[in-house]
Amino acid sequence: MGDLVVDLIPSMLGLLVTPAAIAGAILLLSTARPFANAMAFTAGFLLAYGIIAAIVVTVAAARSEPLLSARAKATVECVVGMVLLLLALTLIARRANRPRARRAKKSFAARLDEATPPFAFGAGLALAIINPNIPILVAGLAVVAASDTGHVLGAGLLVLAAISGMLIPILWRWLAPRSAPGRLDRVKTAISAHDRAINITVLLVFGTTFTMKGLIGL
């Protein structure tokens, strides 16, 4: 069981570090219904990743032997790493449409600023599906599927890591209602100002990590 948790650490860290999700949760904490909106946003992630994890756990638990071999798990990790590196290279090379993309980002941020819980839930669900966390989740679930035991624990840790980046500012805002808003706003501003560099760094770091981890396991 301990080996499973250790093997999941790269995936858990990758799921935790999601700049767009963290910034979205912080932005929603400054709306008229801060906790309802932020929790609805988080629930969108929880639903998307919970369903995927539940499917893998159900299939893996129904078998008397691991769902994936060690070699298949390593192959999945290697592919995920290369996908993340490709996404990083795409971000590095993409410059022509930056003004248009920035306008679209501002429009989305403005809609979040006026969000209701149903809209925040939909935004969370959509963002959960269209960000690099999906391949990272796949790599983590491959580790779970290759394990003899601990499927529920492993999948639960992955889902918890995926929503922790949003739960942390929510808890901070709740526990420190006076000091937290200003500090959270500074965090959001920093993420927004350097989002491209942060995303490229995250993709390069975890892309390299998963590629190397997969190659070592092959």
From TrEMBL:
Q: Where are the transmembrane segments?
A: 12-29, 41-62, 74-93, 119-146, 152-176, 197-216
Q: Does the keyword DNA-binding apply?
A: no
Q: Where is the signal peptide?
A: none
Name the InterPro entries for this protein: Gap/Sap
Keywords assigned by UniProt, alphabetized: Membrane, Transmembrane, Transmembrane helix
Membrane as a keyword of this entry, yes or no, is: yes
What's the protein called, per UniProt?
Sap, sulfolipid-1-addressing protein
